[in-house]
Amino acid sequence: xxxxxxxxxxxxxxxxxxxxxxxxxxTVNALRLMLIDKYGEQHFPNNILCAVNHEIANDxxxxxxxxxxxxxxxxxxx
Length: 78
Description:
The protein is α+β, with helices and mostly antiparallel strands and 78 residues long. The chain contains 2 helices and 5 strands; from the N terminus they run E-H-E-H-E-E-E.
């Protein structure tokens, strides 16, 4: 599946996207935990927004190899 990173997440990872194979019965939560192991928990807080195939997803959303998964960090305003 194609993983897309946006805003400050893209800047801090120095990466805009990558391809990761989906495992059997993989969920958004399982992917997020895998990315935490790879990049560190500070990049994937609990309030990070995730979209799968252009639709907002939750932790239990199932993933497959042909999905596009996007992560958007929390945004602050002033």
